[in-house]
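Good day; I would like, with your permission, to put a structural problem before you. What I wish to show you is a protein chain and, alongside it, a tokenised description of its three-dimensional fold. Here, with my thanks, is the record as I have it:
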Amino acid sequence: MVREFRYGGDRFRATIHGRPGKEEIFIVQVLEDDEEGAEISLDRFEDADNNPDEPIETVLAKMVDRMRREQELTATLVSESFAWQEGRVLARVHSGLQH
């Protein structure tokens, strides 16, 4: 899945593939002119601290928080919580499960 979300007043694009709780996740900040900004990735299959029951929205927010700390970025609107961008599903990919 490729989908955009807003968090802390900023826009991001998440690319997520794999099965729930064991996804590979790539996040890139989308700047005002649609240029790509800072990025971060995580492989939940390899991450020793991974809680596979944690909702993907929580994982994405934590990843953005980590990216901001590591790259010394500041949220535009700290009080804005995580929200998917409606209508901004850029691609749908199968879940990885074979039927």
The mean pLDDT is 89. The longest helix spans residues 56-71. The radius of gyration is 13 Å. Residues 2-91 form one domain.
